[in-house]
Write a structure and sequence with these properties.
- The protein is mainly alpha-helical.
- The N and C termini lie far apart (about 50 Å).
- It has a domain of about 290 residues: Amino acid/polyamine transporter I (Up-down Bundle).
- The chain is about 70% helix and about 0% strand.
Length: about 450
């Protein structure tokens, strides 16, 4: 989840210039994530066939995000991703809150990715919800051990993971097309039109990523020309992939679209039992690789936030954007992430996975937490962009901010999570300033 919930894209060396092809690959990699293995089923469960409207609307909004974040990348080139962008437009306190919200989104997103991989594994091997939770916990612990040992997902491996995801989705969509039925599209909006908004809020996790590659805009030899092509290529690829998957899930699976393993169902239609096995293998590989990137990115961002906004963020440039923009583990130290961070990820992740295993939290509720956090950060970025940018990018930030605000309105109880972080940051900052004021 982007997915995406957050994605991780390596930053090229400072002296290197990005080619259009390489830049497009990095942009596509920032947008795609293992959330595609789960979210189509959740969206279909919330809005039925009308969920394709949510996909289409978010693709349009994605283009607007690309314009805004490209502008932020050029205007605030030395800032630390979303933290620096929000700081430039709304001040240090808001920037710090945005950074911690994004970090919390990464931390709470990691166990969701593990649950996705576990779901595909239990689809192959059998077992219920408790078995899936046990498999997810095992996957998370394996990744944490590897991270503690200093293993980091390199740039080539990250792009290979994205290529694997594209291949799996492509085979699933093309191979199952023969089973599509027009009857599966009726009724089109069984849960009402407002449900499309719920589906859009859920799917937003697959559209987070533009903020991650914004710092790369300064690395093109001819940004004005190359950036337009790169964004166009990235939008074209993701549009074909996302819409193709959305249409296939509804058209092929029908009522069976409300599944937690839609790719497995499509691949089973395309290739029989071998499709289920292939989906499980791909899901596990994507889970391990992506979660490793999440953890190392979280370590870099936590390091920057703990050092404060002044100066530190320039060294973690782009890390706030979905753990993207820095070499894996750049700020995590030579031996990997700090033990305290790994312990926090383990505690949070195992708690969320246990809640799922005991039937106290469903996948939609778990996805809602990181999604709401990312939406809150995007709202801050759009508000900041409206203040610091000029021209088309500034005007694009206004409707994009309104769209994000509308989606936040569908997040319900999950809004309490970013609210608590915002209050904690505000209280912490006031607490630090009071002694100075009293002393004077």
């Amino acid at each position: 989840m982007t997915e995406t919930f957050t994605r991780r894209v390596p930053k090229p060396p400072a002296a290197a210039e990005l080619s259009t092809v390489r830049g497009a690959a990095l942009y596509i990699g920032a947008l795609l994530g293992p959330g595609l293995l789960l979210l189509p089923g959740l969206a279909a469960a919330e809005a039925g066939p009308a969920s394709v409207l949510a996909w289409a609307g978010l693709l349009v909004l994605s283009g607007v995000f690309a314009l805004v974040f490209a502008g932020l990348g050029r205007t605030v080139p030395s800032a630390g991703g979303v933290t620096g962008y929000v700081t430039a437009g709304l001040g240090a306190r808001a920037g710090r809150a945005a950074g911690w919200m994004f970090l919390a989104g990464v931390v709470t997103g990691a166990p969701v990715v593990c649950l996705i991989g576990a779901g595909y594994l239990t689809e192959l091997t059998g077992g219920g919800q408790l078995a899936g939770a046990a498999a997810a916990a095992l996957l998370l612990l394996v990744v944490l051990i590897l991270a503690a040992c200093g293993l980091r997902t390199g740039s080539t491996a990250q792009l290979l993971l994205v290529g694997l995801l594209i291949t799996v989705v492509g085979v699933a969509v093309a191979g199952s097309a023969h089973a599509a039925r027009a009857a599966n599209w009726t009724p089109f909006a069984p849960h009402g039109w407002l449900a499309v908004g719920h589906a859009a809020a859920t799917l937003m996790l697959s559209f987070v990523g533009w903020e991650a590659v914004a710092p790369l805009t300064t690395r093109f030899a001819d940004p004005a020309r190359q950036l337009t092509r790169v964004v166009a290529i990235a939008l074209a690829v993701t549009s074909v992939l996302y819409l193709g998957l959305a249409v296939a899930v509804v058209g092929v699976l029908g009522r069976g679209a409300e599944t937690l393993v839609p790719l497995a169902a499509l691949l089973r239609t395309a290739a029989g039992p071998a499709g289920t096995a292939g989906a499980a293998a791909a899901a596990v590989v994507l889970t391990l690789g992506t979660t490793n990137a999440y953890i190392n990115g979280a370590a870099a961002m936590a390091s920057a936030l703990s050092r404060g906004l002044s100066g530190a963020l320039s060294g973690a440039r782009g890390v706030a954007g979905g753990a993207v923009g820095a070499e894996p583990g750049q700020s995590a130290g030579p031996r990997g992430p700090a033990p305290r961070l790994l312990a926090a990820i383990a505690a949070c992740g195992l708690l969320l996975i246990a809640l799922y295993g005991l039937g106290l939290a469903n996948p939609a509720a778990l996805v809602a937490v990181p999604t709401t956090l990312f939406l809150a950060v995007y709202l801050g970025c759009m508000a900041a962009a409206a203040g610091v940018l000029r021209g088309p990018a500034r005007w694009a930030a206004l409707p994009a901010g309104v769209a994000v605000l509308l989606m936040l309105g569908y997040c319900g109880w999950a809004l309490a999570v970013p609210a608590v972080i915002a209050v904690a940051v505000a209280v912490s900052r006031r607490g630090r300033s009071r002694p100075q004021h009293f002393h004077h």
